[in-house]
Amino acid sequence: MTNEEMQSTIQFILEQQAQVSTNLQKLEVNVAGIAESVVKLEASVAIIGDKVDRLAESHESLQRFVGALAVAQANTEVNLTRTDKNLNALILMVEKYLSGRQNGQS
Fold first, then answer.
1. What SS3 class is residue 53?
2. φ and ψ at 95, to 5 degrees?
3. For residues 50 and 7, what is the distance between their CA atoms, to the nearest angstrom?
4. What is the pLDDT of residues 37-74, one digit of tens each?
5. Can you tell me the distance from the alpha carbon of 85 to that of 80, in angstroms, rounded to the nearest whole number?
């Protein structure tokens, strides 16, 4: 290998080393940016996790409320049926009373 070829090879190796160093620096910057993004994502995931927990609690509370409301509605329907029967009986009594008075007056 001649001196010129040796110098050329050394120059090539130095250029490659410089390129590798430059690429490594770029990668380090990219990794730092990614690390920062990961930290932000972790914070966001924690916030979302808290919101999901609160939403689940709200959902359970709403289910209990709707269940209680369904029971109350069923009780209301029973009471309304009883009231309808009582009202119909009262109407029938009043009609008989009025009918008897009219027949008695005629």
1. helix
2. -60, -40
3. 64
4. 999 999 999 999 999 999 999 999 999 999 999 999 99
5. 9
